[in-house]
Design brief:
Number of strands: 0
Keywords: Membrane, Transmembrane, Transmembrane helix
Helix content: over 70%
Structural class: mainly alpha
Transmembrane segments: 21-48, 78-104
Distance between the termini: 108 Å
Oligomer: single chain
C-alpha cells in the first residue's frame, strides 16, 4: 500500500496520537456522586455519635441478645416437635405397610390351602 491509498486516520501511529479528553459531564457526575457519598457517610457518623446520648446502648444490645437467644430456643423446640410428628407419621406408615404385607401373604397362603395348584405331571 502506498501513502495515498491508506485511510487518513492511520497516518499517525497510535503512540503519537493525542489523548482524548474526558467529557465535562462525566467529571461533574462523578464529583456529584462523590459528594453525595461523603456527605451521607459523615451524616451517619454524626448520628451514631449522638445516639448514646438519646438511647442507653448497653440495654439495647443486651435486650437484642436476649431476644435472639429466646428466638433460637423457640426455633429448636419447634423443630423438635416437628421431628416428633414426622417420627409418628413414619411409624404409622411403616405399620400400615407391614399390615398390608402380612394380609397379602395370608391371602396367598389361604389361596394355596383352599385351592391347591393342579400339577400336570406325567402319569
Amino acid at each position: 500500500m502506498t501513502k495515498l491509498t491508506r485511510p487518513p486516520q492511520r497516518n499517525q501511529r497510535r503512540v503519537f496520537r493525542r489523548r482524548r479528553r474526558l467529557p465535562v459531564g462525566l467529571v461533574i457526575r462523578h464529583l456529584l456522586v462523590i459528594l453525595l457519598l461523603l456527605s451521607s457517610g459523615i451524616g451517619i457518623v454524626v448520628l451514631l455519635q449522638r445516639l448514646p446520648e438519646q438511647v442507653d446502648l448497653m440495654v439495647l444490645v443486651s435486650q437484642a441478645i436476649s431476644d435472639l437467644i429466646s428466638g433460637i430456643q423457640q426455633l429448636l423446640s419447634a423443630m423438635l416437635g416437628l421431628g416428633g410428628v414426622v417420627l409418628i407419621a413414619a411409624s404409622v406408615i411403616l405399620a400400615a405397610v407391614l399390615m398390608l404385607a402380612g394380609l397379602w401373604r395370608l391371602l396367598r397362603l389361604l389361596r394355596m390351602l383352599l385351592f391347591p395348584p393342579h400339577h400336570q405331571g406325567r402319569r
